[in-house]
Structures are given as C-alpha cells and as structure tokens.
Amino acid sequence: MLKKWAKRARKYLYDQKISFRRWRSRVKRELTLIVLGLGHRLLLLGVGPLARHLPSGKFSFLPRLRFLIGPTNSANQGVEWAGALNRAGFKAQSLRISTDPSAEWFTTDIAISREEWLKQPVRSALAQRFATQSDVLLLESLSPIFRLENARDGRHQVLEDIELARRIGKKVGVIFHGSDIRDVDQHAARIPFSPFASDRPEVAELRSRVAANKAILPALQKMGIPLFVSTPDLLKDVPSAQWLPVVVDFPKFSAVAESSPIHSSAKLRVLYLPSQSWLKSSEIITPVLEKLSSENVIEWVTSPQLSHDEIPALLAKVDLVVDQLFGATGVFTAEALAAGRLVMGYLEERSSHSAPIINVTPESLEAAIREVAAERPSASGGVEFVQRWHDGRESATVIAHAFGWRA
C-alpha cells in the first residue's frame, strides 16, 4: 500500500514539475512577445485616441492600427482585405499556410507551407513577427496560425491563438467565408435544390467542421471578439456577425466593361465556370447549357482551368455568366458584374446588399436563358453595385469601425 501511494505521489510531483516548467516557459515567451510589441502599443495608447477619429490623408504620420489577416486567403480575400486596409491608411499583411504552395493561384505577403508550419521554431517566429508588426489578428475560418502550446485538451485549436493574442495586448477578429460556418442541414431544409441535400462525404465533413466552429461562438461572443461574414446570407448562421463585403480588383474588371460591351456576337455567349462542380449546381446547370447549345440558342463558352489573371480576358468574351443555384453570391459574381456582364443565379432573398443578378431556380433556368438570348437586355447596375460595395472602401470601413477607428 505504501509503495502504491509513494508511486502516486512521485507521479503527482512529476506532473506538477512539468506543469510548472510549461507555465514558466509560457510566461517567459509571452513576456518576450509583449516587450517586442511594446513600442507601437505605447504610441497607440498615447496618440490613438486622437488618430482613431481622424481620416488618414493629411494625418498619415499618426500611428494607425496594423493588421494580420490569415491563414487561408480564401478566394484571395485575405490579400484583398489587406490591400483595402492599406489604401485606407492602415497597415495590413496577408498570410497563407498552404498544403501545396506550387499550386497557389495567389501571392500573399507571408506564404508558408504546412510542412514548414508544423515546425515549432517557424510558428514561434510567426508569433514574434505578429507581436512586432501587428496590432490586430483577423483569423479566417477559425484556423490557427501560431499554436505555440500545441495543446491537446479537446478544445478548439484556434483558442490558443486567440488567448495568446489577447494576453500580449493584441486585438482579435474572426472572419467566416461560408463552408466554415454555414449549417448544411438548415440550408438543405430551406432550399429544396440545396447541394447539401445529399449523403456525399464532403457534406459530412462540412457538417463536422461547422459544428466544431459553431460550438465556440458563445465563447467568442463572451470575449467581445468581432465576428465577420463575407456574404450576407451567412448572417442567418451567425446573427451577431457583421457583413464584411468581399473585395475585387475593380479597376481591372471594370476596364472589361468599358472595352468589351456585351451582345457583340450574333448568339448569346454563356459562361459557366464552377470552382467546385457539386457545390455550384453543375448537375442542374450543365444539362440546360448542353441542350441550349445543341439547339443553337447560345454559344456555350467553356474553358480549361485558368489563372486568376486570365479571368478578365475570359469575361470579355461572354455576355452572360451563370453562377450557381446556391442561394448566395461570391467573388466571381462581383467580378463578372464589375466587368459589365449579365449574371444569373439564385438568391434566397433580396436586400440592399444583394447583387443585381437575374434570379432563377432549376425550374426557371432554361426559360430565363432563352429570354435573355431573345431580348438581349443591358447589364445595368452591376458595375455601380460593385463599386459601391466591393471595391474595398466599404470593407475597410467595416473593419476599422469594428475596432473603434475611422477608415
């Protein structure tokens, strides 16, 4: 009996020793991070109350918030939001942790392969860079960036990053893009032709991921962390969030509208370019386009996989873009509208934030395309809509206001 209790006592003391060492290491590391970022923090404390209420312009010499956005860069939005913040007078960097850097479409300010990221010194260097160069961490899709503790205590992995950032005096926001927070079962219940109304393994994976993310929303709200969603429909899933509009390269795409007007060909030229066929209603849209093409009603423009830089030239060759029957509009819709193209898709409901697209369902899709082919309507309002909501100015304003600053 004494041996048993002695063994338990040794184990307890050993565990306490290890816990103390971990605590001491964490405190030392975080004190280092606090000291590294102290200079700019003191400037913000001293001049921030004045600087946060003044537009950048003439007052660009005053210290402003610095942002780090990552680590997914979904649809290049990390880069675009960072660019919008920089144009508004702040300083921002985008970060991407990639499983295959050679296959990336976009270039970020900080690019790291997942293989490198798994190394502790790399993550420590990232944390030090964040401590010295940023004041706000905007986490995409609740994906971790630092994970210095690398704890396996059953909690959501991203909580380590959030708690670290807050302990060293930084602010945190969370951005959701769609599949990271959209309730697939509720979506399927609302929309009869939802792509989630299936037993595909991808749907099960999304369901599991969304459940994990939604489970920590109450904790994030309790901490007062600003939440953002990139499309208005996601406000159904995160009612406490703010809409953070996606950003497109408006000058590049609006140049297409000026140089290449629609309806310059005898037949209606139609483009359907799904990023993920099953998610973008391919089984519904493709048969309709095949039928109309075989009847010579339309010219169905197809394309191999393109780089993003080639998209404007492709849009210049078409009149109508069929986007999706998903219930939301994203980056490609905004780009097509900015390029002066007609866009067709499905919206659950319309509001002042809704893109001016031709709203269709699976039942009305074919008739709607036939009508456009016969009547050749103009693409009115699209360019102006994108300039109002998606050229970056509104997005920078939303982010700045969430952290108490004027854009």
Task: Write up what this structure looks like.
This protein has 407 residues and is α/β, with parallel strands linked by helices. The protein has 2 domains: 25-40 and 62-247 and 392-402, Rossmann fold (3-Layer(aba) Sandwich), CATH 3.40.50; 250-389, Glycogen Phosphorylase B (Rossmann fold), CATH 3.40.50.2000. Helix content is 44%, strand content 12%. The protein is built from 16 helices and 12 strands. Helix 11 links the parallel strand 8 and strand 9 (298-301). Helix 10 packs across helix 13 (331-338). The mean pLDDT is 90.
Q: Quote the CATH topology of the largest domain.
A: Rossmann fold
Helix segment tally = 16
| Silhouette | globular
How far apart the termini lie comes to: 70 Å
The value of Rg in angstroms is 25 Å
Helix content: 40-55%
Spatially, the strands of the biggest sheet line up as 3-2-1-4-5-6-7
CATH top-level class of the largest domain: Alpha Beta
List low-pLDDT spans. Answer: none
